[in-house]
Write a sequence for this structure.
């Protein structure tokens, strides 16, 4: 579980990333977390669960590298004009 926090306030940003090991774990997490209202909180907000478009560290790193290459190529093309 990764719960990003705001560096200025120290509070969480209101979302988390959860990595699951198998499909059964995914199904259990979806059932348990979708629409959950935290009892100790006075907020009326409920949780929303979604699946990431990209799964796994290697896949994420590959996407970031491709984006970096695209930006670098665009910058190089702009310098040549």
């Amino acid at each position: 579980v990764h719960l990003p926090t705001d560096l200025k306030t120290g509070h969480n940003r209101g979302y988390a990333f959860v990595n699951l090991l198998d499909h059964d774990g995914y199904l259990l997490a979806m059932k348990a977390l979708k629409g959950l209202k935290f009892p100790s909180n006075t907020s009326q907000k409920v949780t929303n669960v979604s699946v990431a478009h990209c799964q796994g560290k290697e896949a994420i790193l590959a996407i970031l590298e491709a984006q970096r290459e695209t930006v670098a190529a665009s910058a190089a093309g702009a310098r040549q004009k």
Helices lie at 23-33, 57-80. Residues 26 and 51 are 9 Å apart (CA to CA). The two ends are 46 Å apart (CA to CA).
